[in-house]
Structures are given as structure tokens and as C-alpha cells.
Amino acid sequence: MKKVYAVGIGPGGREFFTDEAAAAINNADVIAGYTVYVDLVKDFFPGKETYTTSMKQEIERCRWAIETACQGKTVAMVCSGDAGIYGMAGLLMELAAQYEDVEIQVVSGVTAANSGAAVLGAPIGHDFCLISLSDLLTPWELIEKRLRCAAEADFAICLYNPKSKKRSDYLAKSCAILMEHKSPDTICGWVRNIGREGQEYNIVKLSELAEEPVDMFTTVFIGSATTKVINGRMVTPRGYEKHEDSYFRGND
Ligand code: SAH
């Protein structure tokens, strides 16, 4: 069977990398992906052939992987976090449909929302959504609409791709939209370089978020109306306290 693995490698460090991901890469003849991600994993698989492309060459990279699989080599396409969350898994499946008998096997990874949440505390402990602020593939009007609806529905929100050099004001614009429905005092957090060298984070109010040093290596967490800070951690309660008074009084 011609096979391409779409492998999520987690946010960075080896400790986030699952055994399933390691098995897929061991099983593959070639590791393919964006240079930064291939560099993160290639040392764990010495001698394994690699194929790297720059960030914006996703279609070319996926087509190469499928055509290489057609020639009889198994390819592991590595993506940061999870391969199906703003990753290559979907594109691989769309392109593979144009070829005969190429199987795309997805290997799930720890996405930035999970690994970043753990750094901050429990910010996505209740209903939440992910929104990418990148308008490379999504019209900005639709991103604005999703921000507005998510704020109105009081989801906790994880923002991926919150800022880049070209889009330096997108986070500020998003904060202004969120504040149409959310209090400026809403608890927010951000984590930069999750699981990598230089990991840092901060917890601030929504009114302060736009001024924080957020960049494309950062994931931003916007709390819901119930999100609070407990001992320096960002927590979105599930609501146990409403139903289990005795639990919180310590009678259980
Ligand atoms: N597939 C990835 C997301 C790719 S989109 C995943 O599941 O995590 C790229 C965005 O993801 C970045 O702009 C950032 O917002 C977030 N991200 C990915 N890895 C990160 C890391 N190690 N630290 C902080 N944010 C990260």
C-alpha cells in the first residue's frame, strides 16, 4: 500500500511527541515537512532521509509526498502540534484523491491549545473554540464574524496565528471586536514557544492583551465570562461549585 503519514509532532520537545508518532516515522522511509519541524525531529531518527520546503510551499510539499509514496517510499509528513489542526492532513487527503490507492494515515499530536493551556492552568476547562487570525486562506470578514459569534456565545477562545509582521494589528483589531460582547476585564493569557526553549507566558485582562508581546510563535487564550485567576493560574471552571456546595466546603 502506498502510504503517507500525517504526523503531529506536538509543540516542540521530545516529551510531547507520542509513541505513535515515533512509530510512524520509524516506519517511514522519508521525513518530509517545513524545515523548522523536520529539524525538531530529525535528530531522533538518525540516518533517516529528509525532504524540507519553506513555509508557503504546502501544496508542492504534499504533492511531493504523495508522488514519492506512489514511487514506493513511505513518507512521514510532520506538522507541529496536531496534523489535522491548521496542518497538512486535510490537504494531503484532498490531493491524494487525485491519485490511485494512496492511503493517508493521520497520527494525532498535542495541539498548541492543549499544551499552552497546561502552562496557563485550565483555561479551556469548559466549551471553547479555536480561531486562526491568519487571513492567508480565510477572508478577514469571516474571521471577524467568527470572533463576534464566539464572543457572543461566551466560548473560551484560543487564537492561533495571532500576529505576524504583515498582520501586526490583527490582534488589536480582534480584541476590539471581542470587547463588543465581552468585558474588558475578561481574563486572558498567552504562551510563547510552548514546549520549546524560551517558553514564556503571561495572564492579563482583555483590555491589556493588544499591548502584550505576542507573535506568530504564540497561542492566545481568551477567557469566558467565568474565567478567573486562582493562585496565578488561569482557570475556566466547569461549574462544579454550583452543584456541589459541600465539595467546596470540604464536607465530602
Ligand atoms: N498544527 C499546529 C498549529 C499550526 S498553526 C497545532 O496543532 O498546534 C501555527 C500557530 O499555532 C502559531 O501561530 C501559534 O499560534 C500556534 N503554535 C503552534 N506551535 C506553537 C508553540 N510551540 N508555541 C506557541 N504557539 C504555537
Report on the architecture of this protein.
The protein is an alpha/beta fold and 252 residues long. The chain is 33% helix and 25% strand. The strands form three sheets. The chain has a five-stranded parallel β-sheet, sandwiched between helices. A five-stranded mixed β-sheet has the order 7-8-11-9-10, with helices on both faces. A three-stranded mixed β-sheet has the order 6-13-12. Helix 3 packs across helix 4. The longest helix has 13 residues. It is globular, with a radius of gyration of 20 Å. The termini are far apart. The model has no long low-confidence stretch (mean pLDDT 94).
Summarize this entry quickly.
With 252 residues, the chain is an alpha/beta fold.
Would you count the extended β strands for me? 13
Largest sheet: 5 strands, parallel
- Name the bound molecules: S-adenosyl-L-homocysteine
Q: Bin the helical content.
A: 25-40%
The separation of the N and C termini measures 56 Å
Number of helices: 10
Q: How much of the residues is beta strand, in percent?
A: 25-35%
Mean pLDDT: 94
Strand order of the biggest β-sheet:
3-2-4-1-5
| Cα Rg | 20 Å
Give the oligomer, counting copies of the same chain as homo and different chains as hetero: single chain
The general outline is globular
SSE sequence, one letter per element: EHEHEHEHEHEEHEHEEHEEEHH
Strands, helices and their partners?
Blueprint: E1 2-8, H1 19-27, E2 30-34, H2 35-42, E3 49-53, H3 58-70, E4 75-79, H4 89-96, E5 102-107, H5 112-120, E6 121-122, E7 128-132, H6 140-152, E8 156-160, H7 170-178, E9 187-192, E10 200-205, H8 206-209, E11 218-222, E12 228-230, E13 233-235, H9 240-243, H10 245-249
Parallel strand pairs: 1-4, 1-5, 2-3, 2-4, 6-13, 7-8
Antiparallel strand pairs: 8-11, 9-10, 9-11, 12-13
The structure holds S-adenosyl-L-homocysteine (SAH).
S-adenosyl-L-homocysteine is lined by residues 11-12, 79-82, 85-87, 111-112, 116, 160-162, 191-196, 216-219.
